[in-house]
């Protein structure tokens, strides 16, 4: 709870995953009074393994958390692809499905671990309002008046939507999600399951008959005490189910992945009772402007690249650093800062969204080669992909504020 006297402009951030707490960290350091509101009762558990890459590594170092991120990385040693009977078709100790090139300096870490690290690094001066959310907001030239679902009404100088692909803040201020979302043609669910395969810093991928992205990947986490299961399929049409209807989402995944291929029946059974569950389409958000008045969007809420980009975490952490830095540089003048934030990041965001499309095409080609046991062809595709990807990742240089 923030009990100190207000030290600067009052900022409300909606969302406590990666982008929101990262921005809170930097705004607090720059003298702003920061509140983060999060619908969940605590930092959300579960989620996929995510990657801190390129300029985000520099941001993490400036936050003083780089060492802890490396210490808590998933530490994958490689991957296998298996057929319906569990026979290995392909193996690599050079790359993985989830993290890519194992020889890179990138850090692959569980989403909930990274969120907890960033929240803790922010310190006690940052106020977190868990189990609440924005119900409505009104803004004028002087402030934004926010009505919460549970707490009392408050006023802020600025409001930041860092609440993900289905951002409620974006809908309230900019309009329906349908105006901005672009579906990429595949869906994925992630949940925590027992390490029933006995994997040791390893992941196993299975592509079900019929081609496409239909199948599963299981990776050991937390030194083999748990595993995370990824369940993927290509829907015939864009998914329209309620993104908060967990029961309905699990039914959908079970229908799409029905069959006795490999361990799919057991994975679907474990999914039903998993302690956490995350599901969504692989989609992007494209907007001409990330701000309107005193409200601005950050990370997936404004420019989601989809998991296929492999850059969502990096764009969130770098975006937070830049937005906070521009607000500091503009001495709190939001109009100047939001314009500079857009100008600074627009090209980098565009490049990363484009690489998601390339990654999807190459990944489908790799799957075909891996499933067919063509190791040399699969490795050649992966090498070409890694070179192009690395060029995009490192194309942004973090500046000082």
TrEMBL record:
Alphabetical list of InterPro entries matching this protein: FAD-bd, FAD/NAD-bd_sf, FAD_aromatic-hydroxylase
Domain FAD-binding: 11-330
Pfam families: FAD_binding_3
Annotated keywords: Monooxygenase, Oxidoreductase
Keyword presence, Oxidoreductase: yes
Single Gene Ontology MF annotation: monooxygenase activity
Name by which UniProt lists this protein: FAD-dependent monooxygenase
